[in-house]
Design a protein that fits this description.
single chain, 169 residues, mainly alpha, 3-stranded mixed sheet, 6 helices, elongated, EC 3.4.24.-, Peptidase_M48, hydrolase, metalloprotease, membrane
């Protein structure tokens, strides 16, 4: 992954990071949190964010469209429940939940794909890609209990345990 990019630090986002298309959509901009001070961790996080760019996740808005559809369906469900029929409202609410969960599942899959592409890229650069990526994930704050106990299905990110196990294979 030989991607020219702009790298900036934002102390406000702690240990988080994100990427987006820069000027005219050509060069990715990677923003990392100011709490990422370990060089290996920074490499792993930047590689992960560049992997999102390489995989097209920054231009593929499928997951976002599902979540947007969920919000529209939820609004329609409320209107239908109060003006048409409760059954119509319940059906629209079920559609909203399905669309939201589908969007989150797509986003989780994108995270796992970016983890693997980042580890492979670091390996190709002569570093221990899986090791650096696992170390960066291990240094992250632990997932909240509700996420570990099944709430991950509502999240756009897989649990840290799942991500580290995937990279350890």
């Amino acid at each position: 992954m030989d991607t020219a990019h702009v790298l900036a630090t934002d102390p406000e986002i702690g240990r988080d990071a994100y990427t987006y298309h820069g000027h005219q959509g050509r060069m990715p901009v990677v923003i990392i949190g100011g709490d990422l001070s370990d060089p290996g961790e920074r490499r792993a996080v930047v590689a992960h964010e560049l992997a999102h760019h390489e995989l097209g996740h920054t231009t593929d808005h499928t997951a976002s469209r599902f979540r947007e559809a969920a919000m529209v369906a939820l609004g329609a469900a409320v209107v239908a429940a109060f003006t048409a029929s409760l059954l119509a409202g319940l059906l629209l609410a079920a559609s909203a939940a399905t669309a939201y969960l589908t969007g989150q599942a797509i986003h989780r899959a994108q995270e796992l794909d970016a983890d693997q592409v980042a580890a492979d890229a670091l390996d190709a650069a002569g570093m221990d890609g899986p090791g650096l990526s696992i170390a960066a994930l291990a240094a992250a704050p632990p997932d909240p209990r509700w996420i570990r106990w099944g709430g991950w299905v509502l999240s756009g990110h897989p649990t840290l345990r799942v991500r580290m196990a995937r990279l350890a294979r």
